[in-house]
TrEMBL record:
It comes from Paenibacillus montanisoli. This is Peptidase E. Keywords: Hydrolase, Protease, Serine protease. Belongs to the peptidase S51 family. SUPFAM superfamilies: Class I glutamine amidotransferase-like. One of its GO terms (molecular function) is serine-type peptidase activity. It comes from the Bacteria. One of its GO terms (biological process) is proteolysis. Gene3D superfamilies: 3.40.50.880. The keyword Protease applies.
Amino acid sequence: MKFLLTSAGINNKSIHDALIDMLGKPIADSNALCIPTAMYGHPWVGPGVKAWQFISGKEENPMVDLGWKSVGVLELTALPSIDEDRWLPLVRETDVLLVAGGDALYLCHWMRQSGLANLLPSLRAVYVGMSAGSMVMAPNIGEFFVGWTPPNGGDETLGLVDFAMFPHLDHVMLPHNTMAAAERWAAGMQGPAYAIDDQTAIKVIDGAVEVVSEGHWKLFSP
């Protein structure tokens, strides 16, 4: 699987071009599944109108509204209650997974409960995360980002990449997301950690990491 881990979606030309390169074909020829699940765990964005905005492509962060050949919804909380043959073929055949932001630990929990977490490494799809949808790929998220608490506690996530992410750096609506805060957060992480603003994404193909940015970012090495 290829990962395009964004802070705020496909919101500039550099990130857009990276996505097309990873797909290997035009967006108009590509089928997508969107995953809104993370939104339900975060009090700011779900449930309600913001989840609908993401699914319908009406939100400000470009992901669902890029002109895909088709877009479906994959709701992870529903998957444990239906037969795998109802959804596994759909996931295996899709070109891209569009994963919303929200709460990373809530998303991680349902990726595991649904069985998607175990499936991800074998997929040919491009995984496009936004905020928590990106953070969930890290080994852990850090205490700074813990909101919803998983049944076993902790801040561990899937570990499908070997670095952590601090999204929305210096965002005007998030006054606590400063570079100084990112430095303190990174000091408590065990491995490499990136602070990225909303004009930045991290591309990962076969373990090779590349930062794609029209904004600002910083890598903190352990």
